[in-house]
Design a protein that fits this description.
Helices cover about 35% and strands about 20% of the residues. The longest helix is centred in the middle third of the chain and has 13 residues. The chain has seven helices and seven strands, in the order βααβββαβαααββα. Bound molecules: iron/sulfur cluster.
């Protein structure tokens, strides 16, 4: 029987959530017996396969128009979508931009910063235009499972994937997965 396929992609964020996925350590070997990883920053394949995957994982917030396109493509091509990490769940650290506003942040970064010479605010639609408000993934597509944390622990990710492989979609992860030190 073909293994269930998993695809992962980053939106606006750091790669801490993917590092936490790798932190599953040796258990990832057992996981690879059970699932096939398709697109991900680890395999360096950019898009989930057209024929679809069982589980899609998005990390990072929705910060620009390109993020929306990527999130919609993942949603269309997966059966179960996981928003992994605080950024994907509610905007996380990226959403602090909302406090000052996108225009003010761009102005400060590209025009007013002390080291700027001949400043210019970038604006290339092909690269994605910044949105006025940073949001979590659930604000643009339906999400089946949220796993908060910055990053979520490897155990939380492993638990969620194990449950999904057993045919269960955990609505809420057990509280021990949300203890941070
Ligand atoms: S939730 Fe934290 S670790 Fe994950 S992408 Fe955002 S900032 Fe990085």
């Amino acid at each position: 029987m073909a293994k269930p396929k998993v695809a992962t992609t980053s939106l606006a964020g750091c790669f801490g959530c993917h590092m936490s996925l790798l932190d599953i350590d040796e258990r990832i070997v057992g996981l690879l017996d059970l699932v096939e990883f398709t697109s991900s920053p680890v395999t360096d394949l950019k898009h989930p396969p057209k024929e679809g995957v069982t589980v899609g994982i998005l990390t990072g917030a929705v910060s620009n128009t390109h993020n929306i396109e990527v999130a919609k493509m993942m949603r269309e091509r997966c059966k179960i979508l996981i928003a992994l990490g605080d950024c994907a769940t509610f905007g996380g650290i990226v959403a602090t931009r909302n406090l000052a506003g996108t225009a003010a942040c761009l102005r400060r970064a590209y025009l007013e910063t002390e080291s700027v010479v001949d400043g210019l605010i970038p604006g290339c639609p092909e690269l994605g235009m910044p949105l006025d408000t940073v949001t979590g993934v659930g604000d643009v597509v339906k999400v089946d499972l949220f796993i908060p944390g910055c990053p979520p622990s490897a155990n939380a990710i492993y638990y969620a994937l194990s449950e999904l492989l057993a045919g269960r979609v955990p609505v809420v992860l057990p509280p021990e997965h949300f203890v941070y030190d």
